Records
---
Amino acid sequence: MYYEEKKKNKEKLMLYFFMAIIIALLVVLIIKSEVGDMAKVNQYQAQKVNFDENTQKEEKKEEISNINSINESIKAIVGISKLKQSGSSIFVNNAEQKLGLGSGVIITDNGYILTNQHVAGNKYSSCYVTLDDANTYEGNVIWADSNIDLAIVKINKASLEYLKLGDSDDLTLAQDVYAIGNPLGLEFQKTVTKGIISSLNRTIKIEEENQNVYMEDLIQTDATINEGNSGGALINSAGELIGINSVKISNAEGIGFAVPVNIVKPIINKLINNGKFDEAWLGIYGYDKEAIRYLNSDIKIENGIYVAQIAADGPLVNLDIQEGDIITQIDDTKVNKMNELKKYIYHKSPNDMVKLKIQRSGREFIIDVKLAMKS
């Protein structure tokens, strides 16, 4: 009995001993796990702090880059007036009332300036352009289109700071944009306002001289655009020109519009390469499906351009086309907006032949047209 009890006590001691070892090992494992977890947490926090700091540095770097781009862009903004002021600059108080002051954007180093037609005037007219250095030059309007409210002015000056053209077809909603112009004369010249792209491809109706004017394919922005900003630049964060500020709805806050720059790129390229632009002319006045609803809500078109009027002295006279027809294609290019048709023709020259695909009363046919020279 004595030996059996002693043996049992020894077995208990051994069991307690092994249990103590197992518990100790478990404690060690738990502590090690917690230490490892804490190390991971500390490592994660350190990495997060690092990441946040790097992100802030990158954001700061990007912000500085944007600011530098905008500051460079300002140098290419000019003042435009139809009347000459007696001093050396047209930037005077109340200049927008006294002189019809607007803005413009230098687009080449040899003096081509893009602005609004209602600011610079019609083709062959003159205006006065004040540069960043406050010197004023006489400008000649070499091209203008009242339907899209754009004009190109030429001054006799070289080695100018100019804006690089961006891609107005590659814009997205909520993208940051900046409007630059001369809203209220000397005190507020070269004003920069920041906003976003609120909408694209807008069509609006404007009443001018008791007539309704329809502007299509506009960029809508909430960047502030005031009197005198017309003709100024709408730029992206890289400082590239994406639009020309054109109109503002006076009875609504935070709604401004700009004409996309891509429509005039063919003209600018021809001026740069050839030193002139001979404008081809199709001789129609038409509307897309967005604009036609303002004119006649009974007219429904899914695609193409509704022919509203044919010029009596244009190249379409005596051809098989009439008011109410729908143009769906020019050559191999489908067109759904009047600006798309204009842009295509800007690539052409007078006397070039084009093919128009026409829809009328359920049938489709093609006509050949020889483009005329626009006077």
---
Amino acid sequence: MFRAKGIYFATALALTAFSPVDAAVPSCSSSDVQCLTGVTPGSTQTSVTRTVVAGIGPQRKSPSRIAVNIGKYRVNGGKFTSVAGTVANGDEVTLRVVASDSHSTAVTQMLSIEGQPNRTFRVITSADNPGSQVPPPPPPVIVPEPVPVRWSKYGKLTLPVDHDGRRGVDEIEADDLDGYSSIYWYQPSSGQLTQAGHVATTGETVFWTPVNGNGITPSSSFPRTEMREKLTVGEYRPNWKLTGTHIQKATVAITKLPTAISAKTRTFLVFGQIHSDDNVPPMKMIFQRLSSGATEIMSNYNTKRQSGFSKNSPVRVSIGLGEKFNYEIRVIDGTVTTLVNDIVLDVRDMSATWTGEEMFFKAGSYLGNNLETATGYGEVVYSNFEVVHQ
């Protein structure tokens, strides 16, 4: 049984015989634990991780059997498997299935947990004609591929410390970046070990951020080692608006997260984001550690032009510490699409909320923890970095 905010989503072991590929015009069902629409045919899709109610006998102490009819599942951040197993009460379960190769077609994965009703994870591919009832896929990229960008041509660097005696964070302007290196930001030589033990390769850049960094701003008490985009190097303006096409994509590895002081504390960092001039980020790419110890990526959207009105992406991708992955932040005429390893996390039209506001990209290591909640540091290693505005 999946549980979220007091709502229980149950599953059962008996797998009813049915075709996992829906022949009729597909649609979501109230029995779905999650339903994804408009996905790319043949793509691999992963469900949101949910806590399950399971177990047999008094106080549910005996584990329940668990199985899926197609695809794979994972318990508590372990390996994905198609083999039936067991699950305990309070475990976290993630589902994975491959979408149909055909358009406007649903693949339905049934999850069963002994003693609970069946639940389904449904994946519906995008329509192949405008008249279909299935929502269209994310906007296509109709601009040239982004090109590699040197950091000194991208913007300024914000450091997690205040060493210059001025109030606020220390900053390195773009013109000075080609000759700059410190413990917080550097290009290691091939084979060099970073503090987290990552073996560097040619062309990588390390963003290192300790939780005890004293470089804070009026709007945030969390340390960050982060690049701030400037369309014109040396000038804060002009920035860009949601109209047009704006893409940031990169290959990156999160090699270290801070260690939580309390078992109930979440540790996470932001490695890429869209920021606005009014000091609220419309979108953040977040790498977080779950209570099980597993790590995953999600995107987070501010749905109003003020903090506190955020929604997480419906899809999250499991990525381990030190594992390289590709991400893309895509803005096309107000619609923001986030992807990790070509898996769509979310597609969200932000134009109504953010029309007229000027934006800029950020990239690096922005901690979601400080000395009040964690120890240690966060480390992010960029291997490739590309941007386009059109």
---
Amino acid sequence: MVIRNLKNFSVSETEKNNKTAGPDWRVTCYIFIILFSVLFFIAFTYLITFYPDLFSRIGRSLNFSKDNQPAENVCPNCLPRFLDGYPVPAGQENLFPMAVVMDNHPDGRPALGLAEANLVYEAEAEGGITRYLAFFASGADIEKIGPIRSARPYFIDWTKEISALFVHCGGSPEALTKIYKENIFDFNEFYQGSYFWRDEEKPGPYNIFTSSANLEKYLESKNLTEGKFLSWQFKEEAPVGAEPEDIAIDYKSPSFTVKWKYDKVNNEYIRYLAGEIQLDGNNEKEIRAKNIIIQYEKAEVLDRELRLKIETLGSGKAVICLDGGCQEGEWRKESLAARTRYYIGGEEVKFNPGKIWIEIVRPELEIVYPLK
């Protein structure tokens, strides 16, 4: 009986103390949760407002393709591909290349298949509007490539030095004449329409597309499997360590302003177009490159359409950017059939294995790049 009384007394005293000790602990938790939620909402709103692409970049960075991995981890005992030096199984290093003229007009964006190109030239077509000449090695699996646009004479020169299939839809009078006179391996949508299609959801003339399967089907019909061009030189990647610095190219219109931002982790450059990360329309994949070349070439306006004549023969200034820094050098092209080659201090440049972008610029354009 005494023990029971002591127990009852103890319980009643404890309850009494709990009631007089202060607010219920659950109230404190509720207040903490509310404050945390408010702070989280404020922080999230700030990030979305001022860094709109942050979360998409984080998501994509966790899902790199094999092209973003070190070469030795991708394909041991492989051979460097002639087009971009990337390691591939023996027998695939020199497959017949395809060169596709692709649009960059705002009404034609986003480009599809561009992230899979091994080598890309960007050059003005007319009035400050740029186009791409994208080279693909056979063996790729690209469901949709385009929009495909018309040819220009200088695109033909760059195609000829790699002896590629030249894929386009029509062209300027000078380009079409050049194709005929120089016997270019031509693949014009005007005459090979069965290998192309028009996307009815896109406005013309930005709605013409093809696929890697269609192009390779045509090559197979001609019994063409092996390329006939000389490779550039490639090296092992340097240890990553450079501080991030941007490369900026002003094509005289905000819609065509280009920036390449260095990704220190992967030793690559991420392409920005008109202030936004440029994504491939096929798979929302970032446009990236291991090597950036800024090639200065003289140009003059030819006609009322503001088409250009760009001099591709001879030599001129070039800026070669890789491993996080840029060096000034020179480009040289000795003949129409010869490959353009790049030199720094008289020595031919050795590139990193992987995608190569060549930005063709007029000397008067404003270019910003970090020097080593």
---
Amino acid sequence: MAIAKKMISIALAGTLAVSLAACGGKPSTDNNTSGSTGTSGSKDKITITFQNIYPDPATPTNKIMTKLVNDYQTANPNIKIQLDSLNTDQQKMKLKTQAQAKEVPDITIVNPSAQMKPFVDAGLLAPLNDMLGQNGLKDTFQTGLLDYYSFNGNTYALPDGNNIGVMYYNKELFAQAGVEIPKTYEDLIEVVKKLKAKGIQPMVIGEKDSWTGSFLFMNVLLRTNGGPGFLKDVVDKKKTFNDPAFEQAVTKFQDLVQAGAFQEGATSFDYNAGENLFKSGKAAMYYMGTWATGAIDDSSVKGKVGVFKLPTVGGKGDVDQYMLAPGSAFAVSANSKHLKETKDFLNYFMTNFPKVSFDMKNAVGLGQKVTGDFKAAGYSQLAIDVLDLFKTVKGGDLAFDNTMNPGTSQAHLNSIQNLFVAKKDPKDVGKEHQTAFETNNK
């Protein structure tokens, strides 16, 4: 929920947007599906390529996918689902190359809003309206969520989640250091210092995947700006990146880095490696989207972890406004040779996704409605606490790269990643961003 990006040059990101627009093929007109019963009408042997971002067989998401795929293949012996499982950065890079060659897999992963728009504009994704209209599939999604994946009246992708950014913390390590949940960002800095003094790693992050640092930074900006909408104001030319709110966010974020919050060499740890440090009990805090709940509960720190909201920063912000993370989503290639069968499988997959996720204790932060008694089903106290946070949400902001164009977004990701390596003047960071924005919006 999603949601990671590998470092690519600004030029490549900008070139992709242009090349996608130039290579759009005419979408197939075969928009029929055979419903969500899991039964294919064809007797021919068919292979459907399913590109995904669930490569780790130890994770709940991989186990859910594997079960659904195996069940479908059992019911449809003439269909083979060929999995192309990659980590998020690898998948993003590979899809860009495939898109330039007009060889998008039958099913692939896209991210909402600005990130998926170039693929839609190029005509590479098939509209899914017909599929959503069958068996009430559209009504299984949370109200308004599909809007992030829709353009000009057509929905082009179905999300696996709808999450918010939170701080997970290890209760035992907090107790060892004699610290409590911070009420302000300034308290958070002091908690970091006290943890370090006790020889405890305060926080971890997988900043090799540069979206992770951006996700936390943008939550700080959400606070210093006094609420959501900073990037929209930049786009509307009401503000620039040299606005005091942005520069204060850079200062406060660097305060956290300079206090030694993150593990040494944070930029060499990818998402999984960073998260594994927390899951193995080697760090006290971990800021991430609520999609991480299931994996944390499936680790050695189960029962030891709590959760809290990012506090106010410099007295600014509302703690009930979050980084909103509409999940990564499944899209179908408009040029699929087996469009009907591909939609049939995806229909089956999404129809059954909520129940299988619930049964496997991984239904926190799903994009679809989930029925069931979480407590009676044996969900952890952490999961219940996270579900309670969803009840408090008063809006927030989307990630930077779900709002800005690819060139500006890549410059932002590089700029924030550099803050983990060396301290920089906030005004210079603002200038970097503003220059990238103006260059990519001529």
